[in-house]
Amino acid sequence: MITSLHGISTMHGNLMTDIRLAKEAGFNSLEIFYPKFIRYLQNGGTITEVKNKISDAGLTVSFLSALDNIERFEKSERVALLAEAEKISQEARQLGTNTVMILPRNGIDHLSDGEIMDIMTDNITAIATIGERLSVRYIIELPAFTKFRTLQQAHEVIRRVGKKNVGVVVDFWHFYAAGCTPEEVSRMNKEHIFGVHFCDGRVPKKAGDSWDETILRSCMPGEGEIDLKKWSDAVKTTGFDGAWSVELISPSVWEKDPSDITKALCQALHKYAA
Fold it and tell me: Which of 22, 102, 99 is nearest to 269 (CA)?
């Protein structure tokens, strides 16, 4: 089993510390949180140093996370998006991973469903074309608080794009919050699952409730509403054999000793998913 620590789970640390903590906690892979990676490079670090440090720790890189705001479609914004896609894809290859997370936000939520699907298809096709040249694949995250949020939408975009280097991350919280079920996940084609985000949380209960992830997801795995065993079993039913990345978004937990927290996260992953 590929067990991965998502770098957002240790929000206030740095990349070098993430590598050490992942090893000490018992993970065998790391989902590199892109802001930490960029900060490391901006302060004199090199990709070679990161790659060597990860290798020396006996780890792999599961994903580079993430190419953000992929819904940008106005001319200058889209040019910038594709330049960023080229850059992060090149960096991923240099780090030794072939998988980049791509993340839409709320930038086109004011548009019709049809327009949203057309924009997402066009942008992901252009991004995937870059990846074909570099042997990079892209893993779509479906934020539950956007209008591009459902598994059905992802399947349709993958069908329209028609490229093998586009898939989805089964993110337990986002899927659960968007109304997806473990039964739907169990019927997925494993070739479309490029990774798992193992996480917990709760959802808004009434109109007007906040969709703030730092509130809704502020708990350790097993403390929220999600049946982690059921969701994990659903993924395993598909035959998926890729990386399971533990993602923690909790300001209160981030303030605790990261060594203790990362060990507990790894233990939770093995408890519910191994």
Answer: 22
pTM assigned to the model? 0.97
* Each residue's pLDDT tens digit, 236-251: 999 999 999 999 999 9
Contact 124/160 with Cβ under 8 angstroms?
no
**How far, in Å, CA of 158 to CA of 168, rounded?**
9
Ramachandran sector of residue 269 (left: φ over 0; alpha: ψ -120 to 50; beta: rest): alpha
Residue 239 is given by DSSP the state T
Between CA 241 and CA 58 the distance in angstroms is 19
Question: Token pair 């699952």 is at which residue?
Answer: 193
Q: Looking at residue 269, what DSSP letter applies?
A: H
Measured CA distances, 219 to 109, 199, 239, 253 (Å): 28, 9, 29, 7
| 3-state secondary structure (DSSP) of residue 148 | coil
**Domains of the chain, start order:** 2-273 (3.20.20.150)
| Whole-number Cα distances in Å, 199 to 218, 223, 231, 232 | 10, 10, 10, 11
Taking only the tens place, the pLDDT of each residue in 9-33 is 999 999 999 999 999 999 999 999 9
Contact 100, 66 (CB under 8 A): yes
Please name the helix (run of DSSP H) or strand (run of DSSP E) that holds residue 119, with its range, or none: helix 113-134
Tokens of 58: 């006996």
Rounded distance between C-alpha atoms, residue 110 and residue 148, angstroms: 11
| Separation between Cα atoms, residue 166 and residue 179, nearest integer Å | 22
121 residue type, one letter: T
End-to-end CA distance of the chain: 7
Cα dihedral 7, 9, 10, 12 sign: positive
